[in-house]
Amino acid sequence: xxxxxxxxxxxxxxxxxxxxxxxxxxxxxxxxxxxxxxxxxxxxxxxxxxxxxxxxxxxxxxxxxxxxxxxxxxxxxxxxxxxxxxxxxxxxxxxxxxxxxxxxxxxxxxxxxxxxxxxxxxxxxxxxxxxxxxxxxxxxxxxxxxxxxxxxxxxxxxxxxxxxxxxxxxxxxxxxxxxxxxxxxxxxxxxxxxxxxxxxxxxxxxxxxxxxxxxxxxxxxxxxxxxxxxxxxxxxxxxxxxxxxxxxxxxxxxxxxxxxxxxxxxxxxxxxxxxxxxxxxxxxxxxxxxxxxxxxxxxxxxxxxxxxxxxxxxxxxxxxxxxxxxxxxxxxxxxxxxxxxxxxxxxxxxxxxxxxxxxxxxxxxxxxxxxxxxxxxxxxxxxxxxxxxxxxxxxxxxxxxxxxxxxxxxxxxxxxxxxxxxxxxxxxxxxxxxxxxxxxxxxxxxxxxxxxxxxxxxxxxxxxxxxxxxxxxxxxxxxxxx
Length: 482
Description:
The protein is α+β, with helices and mostly antiparallel strands. The protein contains four helices and 24 strands.
């Protein structure tokens, strides 16, 4: 039987649904519209990207043009001249003020306190009476000692009379020699008793004097520790009062052990090294004194040595246990090149400064610095006296940048020549477009628009106010004086 004539059998589950043929045309239309939208979105994205790139290029070109214009404009900076001068060499250390002498006044006899002759915080002199202990028992003891002395003196007189009588009798051979010697010994014993009585009198008199407690040194009394009526004893551990000597006063401070040899060399040469005490912030000077001595050992835990300085402290500016910053003047370097500390910058190659040349352009020079003190730095190489260095505005500079020195920067160095604050513009200047600036006393301004300068301008804006220029303007001889 022919295969073509064989009836074909279909599985009803494999046949497509009856409505599939009707839905396929709609699906194909949706697919076509989806592709159309994708193409439209892609085209829109491409056009937007091209517009963004064009805008970025335009902004970059404008920025480059503005940077080029700004590169030609002078940068306002502060400057000062390097000068020759003297700079001190200080050794700094942390110090503590200590009383030159501190005395804990204690009783030397027992008894109640009957009088207090001082006030808390009072300055007393040496030997001044401070308080009184009841003297009556010691006055009685003194009188007893004097009575004992009088009795023993009478016995001595009687013994001496008997001795004279015995000597006469012995010469006449009336009494034996032994009796005479006994009387001589009796006289000696009474004389010894009299010496003991005199010592007892001195002791009683001394105890009586101890009832009047006096100041062993001159100084300042602290807070009162006893009151009238308190019974004190010589064996008490607590003092009656404390006296601290604050005029003069001492300051003990530390320096590194490596800095000790030059100090010792100065002391051995007999030099008087000045020491200055500053407050906790190390800003205000409190007092000036001299170095007295150096400790005999170095603290191995800190690697420092203790130094003791003396201050007259007549104005009471230093107080015991006060914290101070000490500066020991070791030497003074004279005739060295000095520049302000802000002029020194630091980079990968070391310290450098910007030097203003005669053509008002800067050059970067490496320098070697030495001693620094306050706002001054010693320069050992790289700078000569008279060179003008930039002290402010270095972050905007690069080698060859034109600069304008601000007139107010003349105060940054006492030897810097003053700069004329009057602005004399270029002989011919054309401005096209809009220029707007906020004037400052230093002559700095910000320009917007498209200014076209003919000549050279060293200032923008107006002194002390706001300057606005619109349209096209031609000026001769610069801006008028304000």
